[in-house]
Design goal:
Length: 176
């Protein structure tokens, strides 16, 4: 299944590269199925006290679900202005625009220090490049949940299958 997902992502990348209409994106827009979104939020044990950041948020479905289903605050970050517009509209339609915000930004430059949960659906190479930022910027105890792709040699604290798709969770360790 992982190879199927990776093949789909690579196909979408090639198609996006041929159109040349959007900013350079390291990851194509491939939305997580709603069952996987639910599984990610449950695996992270999201509550109303959390601030959920979705890096590469696409249409905003993860932070919108966190706000709608758990009362959490959420921030979506994406480079694509079209996705940000769509996410804002989706938040308005879900009546959670007071709990969430979306910013057009590079996920490597975004200020994520307030996050208590970070969600990802990025390629393995992007996850590995992002790992130092996550470990430096996030407070110990912050949960990181990734759909389909791991973080190389950083072993997850938990992993599960949801609808045939892998989800992984790490907890940012205490600094020594």
């Amino acid at each position: 299944m992982r190879l199927t997902v990776l093949a789909g992502v690579l196909f979408a990348l090639a198609a996006a590269a041929q159109t040349g209409t959007s900013p350079h994106l390291d990851v194509p827009y491939v939305p997580s199925p709603n069952a996987v979104v639910d599984g990610m939020l449950k695996l992270a044990n999201v509550t109303k006290d959390d601030v959920v950041y979705d890096l590469g948020c696409g249409d905003g479905r993860i932070v919108i679900a966190a706000a709608r289903d758990y009362g959490a605050k959420g921030v979506g970050v994406d480079l694509n202005p079209e996705r940000i517009r769509e996410a804002r509209e989706n938040a308005k339609n879900a009546a959670v625009e007071k709990l969430v915000r979306f910013e057009e930004n590079d996920l490597f430059k975004a200020n994520i220090a307030d996050a208590t949960v970070v969600t990802l659906y990025l390629l393995p190479s992007v996850n590995e490049r992002l790992r130092p930022k996550l470990l430096q910027d996030l407070k110990p105890g912050t949960r990181i949940v990734s759909h389909s792709f791991d973080m190389g040699d950083w072993k997850p604290d938990k992993d599960e299958m949801v609808d045939g798709r892998h989800i992984y969770m790490w907890v940012v360790p205490a600094r020594h």
